[in-house]
Design brief:
256 residues; Rossmann fold; two-stranded antiparallel sheet; 10 strands; 30% helix; globular; SAM-dependent_MTases_sf; tRNA (guanine-N(7)-)-methyltransferase; methyltransferase
């Protein structure tokens, strides 16, 4: 039988690879390891990669196994989901994995300047009606700049045409260096070795979406520190399908 939420939360409280600082806690207790993740937790000088909105943590764990010379931190507010990846990392003895349970809106409170080299946004909620909540919005990009190295890489992997289109316009409008972009990740020829390597990683829901015939879209771009970021002023058709636990949207509707 699977564990209940209370049992999972009890496990999370004692797991050494989990740090729990939801907004209510972070307001009262400063995060003393900010700027010191390598020295105080990972005990190495390897690059740090964040997965924001990591869900069950499957992708964080698989990336860590694929790249043992890098450090990975999965971030989400849903502790019961995160328990899956945190437990797997402990059971498999992965020392280059950690999980941070917090609100992504305050992510810059937990990392110091230039502490992070890469960010992954995997199947984020497209937030079609609320631009400021989109994890690829300029408001979040400004947060990322506070701890991402100058020109650090941002990866977006999504089933949402809306989010992918929005992010494409955001990157183009702000002239961010685009490294790679495809609207059909698993059926694109001539992709670079780094991108090909990640094809071996599929989350549970990603496999479900692919079975439904949905394309998986992927892009990666650099985020320089210089320059003012502006939101693209363009209407984008809303997703016309029902994604996992998301309300159905009409393709006839649009949003900025």
């Amino acid at each position: 039988m699977s564990k209940g939420k209370l049992e999972k939360f009890a496990d999370m409280a004692r797991y050494e690879n989990v740090f729990q600082y939801p907004y209510s806690v972070a307001e009262q207790v400063p995060f003393e390891m900010k700027g010191g993740w390598r020295k105080e937790y990972f005990h190495n000088d390897n690059p740090i990669v964040l997965e924001l909105g990591c869900g069950k943590g499957e992708y964080t764990v698989e990336l860590a196994k694929l790249y043992p010379d890098m450090n990975f931190i999965g971030v989400d507010i849903k502790g019961a989901r995160m328990w899956t990846g945190a437990t797997q990392a402990i059971n498999e003895g992965l020392k280059n994995v950690a999980f941070l349970r917090t609100n992504i809106e305050i992510i810059d409170r937990f990392f110091g300047p230039d502490e992070v080299q890469e960010i992954w946004l995997t199947f984020s909620d497209p937030q079609m009606k609320n631009p400021r909540k989109r994890l690829s919005s300029t408001s979040f990009m400004e947060r990322y700049r506070r701890f991402l190295t100058d020109g650090g890489t941002v990866h977006l992997k999504t089933d949402s045409n809306f989010l992918f289109t929005y992010t494409t316009y955001m990157v183009e409008h702000n002239r961010l260096p685009l490294l790679f972009r495809t609207e059909d990740l698993y059926h694109t020829e001539g992709i670079d070795d780094g991108t090909r390597k990640i094809l071996s990683i599929q989350t549970y829901y990603e496999a479900m979406w692919m079975e439904r015939g949905l394309n998986i879209r992927y892009m990666k771009f650099r985020l320089p520190h210089n320059g003012t970021l502006e939101e693209p002023d363009i209407e984008i058709p809303l997703d016309e399908y029902r994604s996992y636990k998301r309300p159905k949207r009409s393709g006839l509707e649009t949003s900025k």
